[in-house]
Amino acid sequence: MAMEEEEAAACEIARLPEELLVEVLSLTGPRDASRAAADSDAVWSRFLPRGLPRLARRELPRSPPPPPSRKAHFLRLSAGPLLLPRKLMSMWLDREKGAKCYMLSARALQIVNLTHSWRWISLTGSSRFSEVVEFLKGYRVEVCGKIPCKMLSGNSNYAAYIVFVVAEDSCGLASVWVATVGVGGRQSTRQVCLDSSNRNDYYYEGEIEVPQDGSVILPQERADGWMELELGEFYNQEGNNQGEVCFSLVKPKAGRWLSNGGLVIQGIEIRPKIS
Question: According to its UniProt record, what is one Pfam family this protein matches (predicted)?
Fold first, then answer.
């Protein structure tokens, strides 16, 4: 019965004059427009953001004429990550809001390790990128990245997430790390932990054990099998064409040697913050 009611409502909406239909659906979102069976290019043009980046060759299959509709183009861009020309970044559109999303690969990040103990691993299947980085050991680890504000959707709340996996025999990842996100002179800092299982771990002088009061942000498992940890959130103002969003994840230097083996980082993802 509910499905029949939805179909009836969609038919009623489809009978509205196009100008009114465009105005009404543009105030909702792409998902609502799909439910309303709206195929008008005028409607879906409202959901396609301006300033879409150029994609790597063959990321989108060529369509025979006539060119695909605006709705078809939106659905292609929101179906999953698409590589940019140098294949160090990927982008896609958020299906709820139509906002631009990105992931910076590990190769696009700045990595600081006082012992230079990391290696690049070839990867296929679970990532759009050909390589990820694995940290082996070190005193202090720092991962930094940045993205121009103009590449993101304006007047949008975003969050940055580091995407990673932790090996079963990892060590030195259960202490407190520091995550920072900054844009336009404003900066937020929080305490995070990459591995809350405390397996095989011990603490040296100068390290902070993770408190159990909820003050430290913990990782979440993703549908693709990776883990993600929110580094922070920020608001991207419309018209901010000169600024950059900078983010970092730092493991403070411990009092003694501590192994960080088993941390594999795919990249940093920037997507709209879900309230």
Answer: PP2
